[in-house]
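User: Could you check the structure of this?
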Amino acid sequence: VLHMLQRVLKRAGLERIRFHDLRHTFSVLALQNGVDVKTLSAMLGHYSAGFTLDTYAHVTTSMQKQAANAVGSFLSGTLQP
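Assistant: Sure, the predicted structure tokens are below.
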């Protein structure tokens, strides 16, 4: 599989990356696009959703800030006289 990945990347004119990097990219994009942690954890074969959260804490922290900003914007817009 690794050799096939490298051939595909080379044909596409892209730099070499590790297979693990694809897994990490998939995980980050999945979280950013609303896949719940429990489902993602099962897809990745992690032993617990807690492990997945610990591994991708930087993503969930960013998502929490975005959610807080969205709620803050919503509340400040509706609470004004």
